Amino acid sequence: VTGKEIGSSKRIDDVIGRYIVSIKSSFPKDLTLSGMRIVLDCANGAAYKVGPTILEELGADVIVVNDKPNGYNINDQCGALYPENIGKLVTEYRADIGIALDGDADRLVIVDELGVVVHGDKLLGALCVYLEKECLLKGKSCVATVMSNKALEDYLESHNLNLHRTDVGDKHVLKTMHEESINFGGEQSGHIIFGDVAKTGDGLASALQVLALILRSGKKASKVLNAFDLYPQILVNLQVSEKIPLEEIDGLAQTLDEIRKKGMRDLIRYSGTENKLRVLLEGKDEKLVKSSMDELILFFKSKL
Fold it and tell me: Smallest Cα–Cα separation from 19: which of 202, 207, 211, 196?
C-alpha cells in the first residue's frame, strides 16, 4: 500500500480532561492542597492550561505566571530555565512553594518558601527516601547521571538505598530504569521520572509527588528538601590540540587512582563539538579538590 492507505489516524476528544484526571489520580487520595499557596510558572508552554487546573482542583491557591503562549514566547526568559524569577514572587506572595516547568513540561524546578532554588540532586534524594518510606520504591534504588553530586550517592547509601549512574540524558536514565526494574530516576536538571505514574519525565506529575512529600513531612519545603549538603565540585574546560583517547594517555590511570584514593570522584570526557577536555572533580574537602585539580591540569597540559 502507498500514500493515504498507510497507517491510520484516531482523534482523542477531551484529551486535556483525560490528562488532568490521570495526573490528579497520582496524588494521594488522603491529601489535599487546601491551604497551600503555590506560584506556578508555565513557561508559556504545554502546561499553561492543565497546570493551574490540576493544582486548583486539588485545592491549592495558585498564582500563575507565563501562561499565555503566543507561539513565540515559549521558554522566553521564563520557566525552569529562569527559576529565580518566581523566587521573588514566592517571597512577595508568601507562598509555600514555587513550581517552574519548561516549555514541554517534562522538566521541574522547585523554589522553596524562602525563594531559594532547590538543587536537583537534593530533590532526587528527598523524593527517593520519601518513596522508600511510603513503600513505593522498587529495587531500593534510584537512577541518576554521572553529573549528580556524590553527596546524593552517600545520602542514599545512609538510607540503605543504591544509586545507579548513567550517561547524561534522560533517555539513558529511562533505559537503565527499565533494565534494572527501577521505578524512580532523573537528572539534576529537573527531568524526574516516576515510572509508576508516567513512562517519561512529567513535570506536573513530579510536582505533585513533591507536594505530597512536603505535606506528609509536615515541614517547610526549605527543611524537607534540604536534607544534605552538596560536596564541593570543580569543572574545568581545557583546550587541547588533539583528542587522544583517554585510555591511551600514559600515566592517567595511575594519576586518577591516586586521586580516587583521597575519596574524590572524577568525570573526564572530551567535548563532542569542540577541541576541549572537560575535567570534573568533587570531594568533601574543598582545598583537596582544588589542589588535585591543579595537579590534573598540569598533567593534561603536559600530555595534550
Answer: 202
